[in-house]
Amino acid sequence: MTLLARYTVKLFIKIYVIILVALFCMYFIIDMVTNLDRLSNATPDDISLLETLIKYYGIRSFSLFNTINSAVILLAALGTIVGMQNKHELIALHSMGASPGQIAKPIIVMATLLALVGAVNREIMLPQYQEALSRSAQNWNGEEKVPIRAKFDHRTDILIGGQYAVMSDRTIVNPRLHLHQPIGQFPRIIEAERAIYEPQTADSPHQPAGFRLVNVQVPAELTSFQSARLNEKVVIYTSADLPNLDAKDLFLSSEVPLELLVAENNHYKYSSTRDLVEMLKNESLDYGAHLRVQLHARMVQPVLDLTLLLLGLPFVLSGRNQNVIVSIISCVFALVCFYGIVFTCHAIGGSGYAITPTLAAWIPLFILIPAAYFVTKHIRR
Questions:
Q1: 253: helix, strand or coil
Q2: pTM for this one?
Q3: How many CB atoms lie within 10 A of CB 180?
Q4: Would you state the torsion angle of the CA atoms of residues 355, 359, 365, 370, taken in this order, to the nearest 10 degrees?
Q5: Mind listing the pLDDT tens digit for each residue in 147-162?
């Protein structure tokens, strides 16, 4: 690595960290003004408020990093070039024969590495804290009542609903099942006192994922009922086939996760690409076009992060604009156009009408890469 490259990388990292920390602090302060009382009420007696704040904002820092990383890369590159320009270092470098491409190369390499860090954050860190990120400050401990949005299980033709959910013990209070087609001897409506979501585990491989219906009230008497099958698969289990069930309990086999029933659910945003693929393969679910947009957007996101840098960097390296204010305005304009194109395409694709979800995720690349090439080729060599 040359002396110029080492100096540029060191300055870029310094400015990147300063901007990132400043935005983190700004977000934490603004959010704390609104949510401090809610987090205080949601903090158990045996845990201090400081521990709750550290955990709450520590987990959300991964989500915030995912949101602002590409913009911070551009701002850090802008700050690096403007800082060198204010110290008249660019004039000295040009007089020594250094081209704008040589100056930009270390910044582009660092931007590529940071884009890969963002991809690792999306695929590894965010999925680990998926459940916590889906909780609001008011319901941070998961003990508050959460509204239920009835969800249709496409595999079994059963509408799963209830009065409300308590996420801490993964329970639905007063669950109500609507059977859209006859399944065994069971009536079209099944009601119970509680429904506990139980995922499939290695300890009980023969029991599928689903909901344990505790103290079934409709039908009132279960002794005459047998486990019901649909397409040669057991859908509703009785205690005769699952020994861990009580006589008044039933077990509904369903691949609809409890998180999907929560009215303010957005858990798929924090899922890994592998999880998104599994969701699309799930016969019980129909997430719609927006999930397919999300899946393809994951694939193009690292390239988009680098494209944003290539859109804004030439404005401060072209040598034609010595006015710092004009350079900053030009970069901000590039930033607004970038996110405007990306969000507009995703919104149109998510509607599922005008364009396909796959095309909606890839169209920004088709628009922005030629634009970046057109802007970049004007850098003096």
A1: strand
A2: 0.83
A3: 12
A4: -70
A5: 888 889 998 999 999 9
